[in-house]
Structures are given as structure tokens and as C-alpha cells.
């Protein structure tokens, strides 16, 4: 069956959009997000500068697309680890998801820097990035949720002065969990990403040599912070 002109144009648009994003990722790796330029990407692809604006009206639109792609790729990795570990103990599932996140970050350091590194000057991520950005956090929360359903979650105490904030957080994103779990999940999420960021950005150089063992030890502590039992040695 021959393709229609409309179908051919749609495929061409998909291919060109993918090529633009791939070149942009290459430039992120070489120059950083702050130096990303639509005109430079167009030149590298042999496109007229005016043509690229039909695909991405501005640099910020291109950055947003790259950010969503990175969040989705990382989220898919975390969710795949969550699915593959179904039926295992909660501590093992936690470890599997955390190690999948770390593995993705080490394999994609420039994309990790784009989503969790320094803000890009002059750029503010729009609300359209939120669903993709939430995927990693929700994969971790799902481990906690399953442990709670199984009666295997030791609910942490709510820190003094955070009772109202804990209730608000829980209502916003974990209404089926005890309010005390919400601030613990947020704190652990931030600590996990910071831990991985230190490794990705080289802050552990000449400080931590046994990186795999150190990571497993640390995420075990984070698991216990959210109340997971049997989460590694103390």
C-alpha cells in the first residue's frame, strides 16, 4: 500500500524533530544547556535557520522537549525496575528502583544535569514538565505503598512543627498513606537525587572509592527513613 502525502509528511516531521533533539543533546554534552542555540542546531543539520522554528518556536520549547524526554526516559527506567521486582521484599524492590535510577544517571550524565543540575539562565520549566518529572518519585512511592498495604511499613513520626505540612503533602500526592510518610518520602527523594548527583558531577572523587557498596549502604538508610523493613544492614 502506498503512503499518503499526509502520512509521509508526518513521518518526515517525526524524523526531523528527532534529529533536532539528537543534535541538541550532543550540544548539551559539549557546551551545556545555557549555550544551546536553535540557529547552531540548524546549521549543524544543514537546515535554514528559519526552518527549525517550524519545529521548535524557541530555544525554551526545545529545552522543554529535551527535559520531558529525559524525565520520561528516567521514569521508564525506574518503572521497569519496579515491575521487574514485583513480588520481592520491599527493601529489595527499593534497592532495584534506586539502582536503576543511578544506572540511568551514570549512563546519561548530561541529561541528568539538565533535569537535576543547575537551572538554565533565563529558562523556567513549564507545568507541562510536571507529569514526566513525577514518574521517578511515584515509582519510589509505589514501593512504600505496597509495603503499607502488606502491613510491612513502620510509619515514621511526624517531625515537630510539620504536622500541618505533612497533612497537606499527603493530601496532595499520597492520600492513601499516613500523613507522616509524605515528608519522609520528599526528604528521601531529595537525598537520593543529591547522592546520585554527587557521583555524576564528580564530588565523590578521592572521597568515595567503593561507589557501589556505598550507594547500597546509603539507600538502605533512606529506605528505613520512610519505614521500609528489612532494608539492608544498619
TrEMBL record:
<feature type="DNA-binding region" description="H-T-H motif">
    <location>
        <begin position="37"/>
        <end position="56"/>
    </location>
</feature>
<dbReference type="InterPro" id="IPR001647">
    <property type="entry name" value="HTH_TetR"/>
</dbReference>
<dbReference type="Pfam" id="PF00440">
    <property type="entry name" value="TetR_N"/>
</dbReference>
<keyword id="KW-0804">Transcription</keyword>
<protein>
    <submittedName>
        <fullName>AcrR family transcriptional regulator</fullName>
    </submittedName>
</protein>
<dbReference type="Pfam" id="PF13305">
    <property type="entry name" value="TetR_C_33"/>
</dbReference>
<dbReference type="InterPro" id="IPR050109">
    <property type="entry name" value="HTH-type_TetR-like_transc_reg"/>
</dbReference>
<dbReference type="InterPro" id="IPR025996">
    <property type="entry name" value="MT1864/Rv1816-like_C"/>
</dbReference>
<dbReference type="InterPro" id="IPR009057">
    <property type="entry name" value="Homeodomain-like_sf"/>
</dbReference>
<keyword id="KW-0238">DNA-binding</keyword>
<keyword id="KW-0805">Transcription regulation</keyword>
<dbReference type="InterPro" id="IPR036271">
    <property type="entry name" value="Tet_transcr_reg_TetR-rel_C_sf"/>
</dbReference>
<feature type="domain" description="HTH tetR-type">
    <location>
        <begin position="14"/>
        <end position="74"/>
    </location>
</feature>
Amino acid at each position: 500500500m502506498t503512503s499518503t502525502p499526509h502520512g509521509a509528511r508526518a513521518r518526515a516531521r517525526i524524523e526531523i524533530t528527532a534529529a533536532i533533539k539528537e543534535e541538541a543533546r550532543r550540544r548539551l554534552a559539549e557546551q551545556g544547556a545555557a549555550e544551546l542555540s536553535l540557529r547552531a542546531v540548524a546549521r549543524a543539520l544543514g537546515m535554514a535557520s528559519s526552518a527549525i522554528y517550524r519545529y521548535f518556536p524557541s530555544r525554551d520549547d526545545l529545552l522543554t522537549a529535551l527535559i520531558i524526554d529525559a524525565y520520561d526516559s528516567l521514569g521508564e527506567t525506574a518503572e521497569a525496575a519496579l515491575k521487574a521486582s514485583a513480588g520481592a521484599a520491599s527493601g529489595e524492590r527499593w534497592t532495584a528502583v534506586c539502582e536503576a535510577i543511578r544506572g540511568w544517571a551514570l549512563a546519561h550524565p548530561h541529561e541528568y544535569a539538565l533535569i537535576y543540575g543547575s537551572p538554565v539562565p533565563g529558562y523556567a520549566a513549564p507545568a507541562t514538565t510536571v507529569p514526566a518529572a513525577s514518574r521517578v518519585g511515584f515509582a519510589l512511592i509505589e514501593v512504600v505503598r505496597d509495603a503499607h498495604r502488606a502491613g510491612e511499613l513502620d510509619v515514621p513520626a511526624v517531625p515537630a512543627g510539620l504536622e500541618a505540612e505533612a497533612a497537606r503533602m499527603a493530601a496532595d500526592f499520597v492520600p492513601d498513606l499516613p500523613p507522616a510518610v509524605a515528608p519522609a518520602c520528599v526528604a528521601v527523594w531529595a537525598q537520593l537525587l543529591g547522592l546520585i548527583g554527587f557521583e555524576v558531577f564528580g564530588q565523590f572523587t578521592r572521597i568515595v572509592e567503593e561507589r557501589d557498596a556505598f550507594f547500597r549502604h546509603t539507600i538502605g538508610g533512606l529506605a528505613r527513613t520512610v519505614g521500609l523493613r528489612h532494608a539492608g544492614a544498619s
